[in-house]
Amino acid sequence: MYNAEIKTIPHREQRYDTCGDWWKEAAWLKVRVSSMGNPDYEFLIAIHELVERQLCMKMGISEQTVDAWDLAHEDEEEPGAMERCPYREAHLRAEAIERVLANDLGVDWEHYSKTVSAIVKETPMPSDPTVYDKRPGEDYVSRNKEEYKQSVKRYQYTVGTRRPKMRPKQKARSVLRDR
Prior knowledge:
Layout lengths: L2 E7 L10 E6 L2 E7 L4 H20 L4 H10 L15 H18 L3 H13 L23 H15 L20
Parallel strand pairs: 1-3
Antiparallel strand pairs: 2-3
């Protein structure tokens, strides 16, 4: 196994215009996720990056190949999904896992996608009641513990104190099985 460091950072601190980035530095895998004001959204991006990286390594696709492709296609909304992308299969499988987790977390995929696009395009983010009283681009460490507790309490009072139980799902067909 390897050591991994995952950090949420303001979008402007990314190496290039992306919401999620990974690279190897010495014995560490570094993952950077743009702050989106929603921990579930940031978790989904981090998982996507971890899965994509691991699959790329298993497929013999180097970090340099991924970075070169992304930088050459920065104008595209999703460079990893392009037909001729060298790591397309790894990207699509990571997205499939991301979608399953989003469903399990109760994340609205459409709103999540719009939020990711808004961060990348530096346009105002769509309003979302699950933002936990956090402004776009605000980093978690910029608030002290008491401020965070107050924002969570405010959120809990708006939705009630009981957490919704996850409903059991019917056995779903794998999105990867048909490939």
